[in-house]
Amino acid sequence: MSTTTLTSETFEQTVSGDGIVFVDFWAAWCGPCRAFAPVFEDVAARNPDIVFGKVDTEAEQGLAAGFGITSIPTLMVFRDGVLVFSQPGALRAPQLEQLVDGARALDMDDVRRQLAERGASTPHA
């Protein structure tokens, strides 16, 4: 399996470490979520060095609420423990691949410097 199921017990440990983590907040009843799922799986299979996690918002309501998820699917990207992207809506494969490339290319020293200048902390549920 290319993706991993994230729960309230595994979420923080998964996103707070080094590396890139893509998180898809979804629900089984959501048509756009079901349409996005094969795209997410396909891109995950082509990028085994990145963690692709899925959060079932029905099973993990507290986790979804903690991140203020009001529209699904919502995609979040963490890099080295920092939330660097969050957007609701299903993406097409080229858009998701572009996001993968962008996450890889980030200068995390610069990202952390900008966060420090704004006085921001790394947002976690």
Automatic annotation (TrEMBL):
Protein's UniProt keywords contain ATP-binding: no
Pfam family membership, one: Thioredoxin
Record keywords, A-Z: Disulfide bond
PROSITE patterns linked: THIOREDOXIN_1 (PS00194), THIOREDOXIN_2 (PS51352)
Residues in Thioredoxin domain copies: 1-105
PANTHER family: THIOREDOXIN-LIKE PROTEIN 1
Name this polypeptide is given: Thioredoxin
Organism annotation: Cellulomonas chengniuliangii
